[in-house]
From TrEMBL:
It comes from the Bacteria. It comes from Leucobacter chromiisoli. This is Tripartite tricarboxylate transporter substrate binding protein. The keyword Membrane applies. The keyword Oxidoreductase does not apply. PANTHER family: TRICARBOXYLATE-BINDING PROTEIN, UPF0065 PROTEIN YFLP. The chain crosses the membrane at residues 35-56. PROSITE patterns: TAT. Residues 1-32 are annotated as: Disordered. Keywords: Membrane, Transmembrane, Transmembrane helix. Belongs to the UPF0065 (bug) family. InterPro entries: BUG, Bug_dom1, TAT_signal.
Length: 355
């Protein structure tokens, strides 16, 4: 199995920045990143006064958690975080788990705008924030003032696996063939993906293959659909993207799947893992829920119970199957360790990209 190189200073993956599905364009320079941090903080502070903040703060401390709940999606309607929020809302409403549950969309800066707002709702347990790998990555990428340490993580719910794909007419039949050509001339194979998470996967594969990310071209696309089009029109030669985003194109024969990015083979997915093929990359796009900080131990337990009840409902089970989510529930001390490990892992990848 190939060994991952140690991170080095100054690496920078060549990139064509385009706004991603769950965040703004990747910063192009340290100065730009600093500016984004300042602007992001100002927007977060200013957004406290908008209607969205009034909605999420309406569930006051001490209120019966089964009476009213707000689920905050830190992105616009239609994205992955929004889907989680609305499927959870539907499951809770259909089964009478909460009397009144609403979803509030609060997009911006890869989810850190919403995170900053929720971090200011100390003690207001009637609010749940949807997050995941992308949100954790955004706190590192943009150096946001608010981090996951400023909220109360409750549970990871599931994870989505990326697939590595090429067009059906690509000369590469296996991951090994693709990586071999990539190693010989890294700039000869432009990569694409639907957002910042997919870029992290490409970076991880480059490191596992002994390729400097600085030598690789990554074309960031605005969502999975645009990434697929970049493959099909020849703009990109290979891509990473969510399994659910690519499965239709794979089954239709327009794309060829070379590897699944998962720790082990997944039942029902007939794609070999990258790890099986000698490339130890396992980063997944997991989704989680968090509450504001400062809530009591009793409130934390009540919210954990609510989540446990929600994910057992028929509606949620149907969503798991419909969206090809791979259930992985992580709570308690295991969750704390998991988030710490993921933070360290993603931080290294951004260092490799020079961000």
């Amino acid at each position: 199995m190939r060994q991952q190189r140690r991170p080095h200073e100054g690496a920078n993956m060549t990139e064509t920045p385009v706004e991603s599905a769950e965040g703004p364009p990747d910063p192009a320079s340290p100065t730009r990143r600093t500016a984004l941090r300042i602007i992001g903080g100002a927007i977060a502070a200013a957004s406290i006064g908008v209607a969205g903040y009034g909605s999420i703060s309406s569930a006051a401390a001490g209120q019966d958690l089964r009476s009213s709940m707000t689920i905050i999606a830190p992105a616009a309607a239609g994205g992955g975080w929004d889907t989680v929020a609305r499927e959870m809302q539907q499951a809770q409403k259909a089964n009478g788990l909460i009397n009144n549950v609403q979803v509030v969309n609060m997009p911006g800066a890869g989810g850190t705008i919403a995170l900053g707002n929720v971090s200011m709702l100390e003690g207001r347990a009637g609010n749940l924030l949807v997050g995941g790998t992308g949100l954790l990555a955004a706190t590192i990428q943009y150096g946001s003032a608010a981090t996951l340490d400023d909220v109360t993580p409750l549970a990871v719910l599931f994870e989505e696996y990326d697939v590595i794909v090429v067009p059906a007419d690509s000369p590469y039949q296996t991951l090994e063939e693709l990586v071999t050509a990539w190693e010989e001339d890294p700039k000869s194979i432009p990569w694409t993906g639907g957002g910042s998470f997919d870029q992290l996967v490409v970076t991880d594969l480059a490191l596992a293959a002994g390729i400097d990310p600085v030598d690789t071209t990554y074309i960031s696309s605005d969502g999975g659909g645009e990434a697929i089009q970049a493959l099909l029109n020849g703009t990109a030669g290979a891509a990473t993207g969510g399994y659910s985003d690519n499965i239709d194109q794979i089954e239709s024969g327009r794309l060829r799947a070379l590897a699944l990015v998962a720790e082990e083979p997944v039942e029902g997915i007939d794609i070999p893992t990258a790890r099986e093929q000698g490339y130890d990359i396992t980063l997944t796009n997991w989704r989680m829920l968090a509450a504001p900080s400062g809530i009591s131990a009793e409130e934390t337990e009540d919210l954990e119970d609510l989540i446990a009840e929600t994910i057992e409902t028929p509606e949620w089970r149907d969503a798991i199957e419909r969206y090809h989510w791979s259930e992985r529930v992580i709570v308690g001390d295991e969750l704390t360790q998991f988030l710490d490990d993921e933070h360290a892992r993603i931080e290294v990848l951004y260092e490799e990209m020079g961000q």
